[in-house]
Amino acid sequence: MSKCRQLELEISDGLIQTTKDIIKAGILRKLSVAKKIIEFDKELAAGIYVYAIEELGKLQLLKDVRNGKLDYLAEFRNHNFKFNKAKEYLKSLGYSECFTLHEGAFEEDAFDEDSFDVDTHANTRSRLGIFYVDLIYDKTNRIVTGIKDIPPVDEKELGACISELENLVKGL
């Protein structure tokens, strides 16, 4: 259950379809931009790619609207909800690889200094780690101990992810 406030809105079928069309076009624009800048700045391209995945979750959410009722705050505006919706959808289609942007390096996770991860996964935290500088700190003493690294991104894997998602969205 989402921790966000709820705000249920009524939305017509016509507005749902128009919104889905706009979202789909926006996803394709984001993927096109990510593809064009990948050689210049692969981390920025990865951040834009993660935004596209989140919008795919919004698209899936709208496909599930029943009786014209939409939970605007807890679902439509909730980044984690939309991202998880996209993740469920892509996994159901066998597109799990759309979430791995880097494999093989054993590096400290960019978001939780207490855990280690061999992969960088496309998710909201990855997007934020790419766009915003964050600090590592001792939670007990509240002392800054370092600066979080930008999550590593493999250019070839990201390019493959972008192409796969682009093909999938074009077919929707």
Structure description:
The chain has 172 residues and is α+β, with helices and mostly antiparallel strands. The protein has two domains: 8-96 and 154-170, no CATH class; 107-147, no CATH class. It has helices at residues 13-37, 42-63, 72-76, 79-92, 124-131, 155-170, and strands at 8-10, 69-71, 100-102, 107-108, 116-117, 120-121, 135-138, 143-147. A two-stranded antiparallel ribbon has the order 1-2. A two-stranded antiparallel ribbon has the order 3-6. The chain has a two-stranded antiparallel sheet with strand order 4-5. It is globular, with a radius of gyration of 17 Å.
Keywords:
8 strands; 172 residues; 52% helix; alpha+beta; two-stranded antiparallel ribbon; 14% strand; single chain
